[in-house]
Design goal:
Layout lengths: L8 E2 L18 E2 L3 H15 L7 H21 L12 H26 L16
Parallel strand pairs: 1-2
Helix pairs in contact: 1-2
């Protein structure tokens, strides 16, 4: 993804963060609740508004006007099928391990590329390679 690519997920039908598998599971999700939805709209407004997004007060006024109608439609949305399989603890641990290994490899490549002179955030630099 480039610096202009955005992913916004909206959890409908009673889905929870833990129900979403990778790759979408790596992103933050928005619950269909008033303040979460408002925050999502502010994020989208900033992303697509460029140098001239809607003023926050205007966006909030429009959101407050139309939220009751949207909320009714969200409440009428069918629940996720009961057959949605819960992720096993082993799958979630494997995902965390995979993510940790990828992050470690990424940092190792950065240190190799930079000759070991880039400090890792949160680790004091005392010279040499970490």
């Amino acid at each position: 993804m480039d610096d202009k690519t955005r992913v916004c997920t909206y959890l409908l039908g009673g889905l929870e963060n833990k129900d979403i598998e990778p790759p979408l599971g790596h992103f933050q999700h928005t619950k269909p609740e008033k303040e979460d939805t408002r925050q999502l709209l502010h994020t989208i407004n900033k992303a697509v508004g460029g140098d001239d997004p809607l003023p926050e007060k205007t966006l909030d006024a429009v959101f407050d006007q139309f939220w009751p109608e949207l909320e009714k439609k969200l409440n009428a949305f069918p629940a996720a099928p009961k057959a949605v399989a819960k992720r096993s603890l082993e799958d979630m641990v494997a995902e965390i391990l995979e993510f940790t290994r990828a992050e470690t490899n990424s940092r190792s490549r950065l240190l190799t590329f930079s000759g070991g002179s880039v400090p890792i955030t949160g680790v004091p630099h005392h010279g040499g390679v970490y």
